[in-house]
TrEMBL record:
SMART domains linked to this entry: LRR_TYP, LRRCT, LRRNT
Tagged with keyword Plastid: no
Protein known as: Leucine rich repeats and transmembrane domains 1
UniProt key word Secreted: no
InterPro entries per the UniProt record, alphabetical: Cys-rich_flank_reg_C, Leu-rich_rpt, Leu-rich_rpt_typical-subtyp, LRFN, LRR_dom_sf, LRRNT
């Protein structure tokens, strides 16, 4: 491999710089900005570290587009017309650290698009039309520290994708039509843990369903997902004990919201189970009240009976023991009274 690079270097020392670009040999930077390019220029100097291709009309990246420049560290393709990225587009860029693809027309990404970039640290996919991200960005993406998917058309994001980026420090989610239904619980839990570990994010603002529009995902209480299918919600919720007080405080609020909600998808938290459980609760309270009332009445009856019995007994005793008592009292009283007089 090194030998081939050496031959390429020799060839390009003769060929020089592509016509529409400026090649700075000391900084090993090639500047091809604002040139109306429609493809990656060929005959790039092989020692290039920084390649600036922004503000062009590049719409296609060939399989072998960068094989001539294996040492690239920074590749800026922002503000172009790239709509499709083949999985081999960045093949051979073993040293690439920064890849800027912002302001393009990308709508789909393949699983292995970034697999060949083991050193990649910053990936900017903002301002595209991405509808879906794959479960992973590739096998070798463990060095990514910054990921931006701002200004796309993402409705959801698989938690597995984020978990495959253990060194992530900054993740930007802004301006996507995030769907805050059952699917989002995994993402919410991941984001909470990410922020707790000191990660930086601009957060997720819900777009749908209607009653959560404009709400910060982190502030949508877990109680909202009480009616989600077990796999989506309860397994996660079982592990979240510290949010219990949050659920309770928002319980009343939730009932009102859920009732006003029209559920479209199967995964939408359903509003029906909750009034049923509420009715159960009311029934329980009523039954408990009735039982308590009966017990109270019985106790009252027992008390009344007890008092009456005691009164009768006392009366009986007074009538039968009266003479002895009457005899004794004046006797005790007399000396006392005389001493006072
Ligand atoms: C994007 O590139 C076009 C030329 O292709 C240029 O006219 C425009 O100003 C650029 N936009 C930004 C925001 O740089
Ligand atoms: C991250 O980069 C280092 C070199 O800086 C490399 O040795 C390592 O294999 C990379 N890790 C992953 C997971 O790709």
């Amino acid at each position: 491999l090194k030998h081939t690079h050496y031959i390429i270097v020799l060839r390009h020392m003769v060929c020089g710089c592509p016509k529409k670009c400026l090649c700075h040999s000391t900084s090993k930077t090639v500047d091809c900005r604002n040139q109306g390019l429609v493809e990656i220029p060929s005959h790039l100097p092989p020692e290039t570290l920084i390649l600036q291709l922004q503000n062009n009309h590049i719409w296609r990246i060939n399989q072998d587009a960068f094989t001539e420049t294996p040492f690239l560290k920074i590749l800026d393709l922002s503000n172009n017309s790239v709509s499709n990225l083949s999985s081999g587009a960045f093949k051979g860029l073993h040293y690439l650290q920064v890849l800027n693809l912002t302001k393009n027309l990308i709508h789909k990404l393949e699983n292995k698009t970034f697999s060949s970039l083991p050193q990649l640290k910053e990936l900017d996919l903002s301002s595209n039309s991405i509808l879906n991200l794959p479960e992973t960005l590739g096998n070798n993406t463990g060095n990514i520290t910054l990921l931006s998917v701002e200004y796309n058309k993402l409705q959801r994001l698989d938690r597995l994708l984020l978990e495959s980026l253990p060194n992530l420090k900054v993740v930007l989610f802004k301006d996507n039509p995030w769907q805050c239904n059952c699917h989002v619980i995994g993402l919410k839990l991941w984001l909470e843990s990410f922020l707790y570990r000191g990660g930086i994010s601009d957060g997720i603002i819900c777009s749908t369903p209607e009653n959560r529009k404009g709400k910060d995902l982190l502030k949508v209480p877990y109680e909202m997902y009480g009616a989600c299918p077990p796999t989506a919600a309860h397994v996660h919720l079982a592990n979240v004990h510290h949010h219990n007080s949050e659920y309770r405080s928002s319980l009343k609020h939730t009932h009102l919201n859920e009732n006003g909600e029209s559920s479209h998808s199967d995964c939408e938290p359903k509003s029906k189970p909750r009034p049923v459980s509420l009715r159960h609760a009311i029934a329980t309270v009523v039954i408990t009240g009735v039982v308590c009332g009966i017990v109270c009445l019985m106790m009252l009856a027992a008390a009344v009976y007890g008092c009456t019995y005691a009164a009768i007994t006392a009366k009986y005793h007074r009538e039968h023991l009266a003479p002895t008592t009457e005899q004794r009292v004046p006797e005790g009283k007399e000396p006392f009274d005389s001493s006072l007089a």
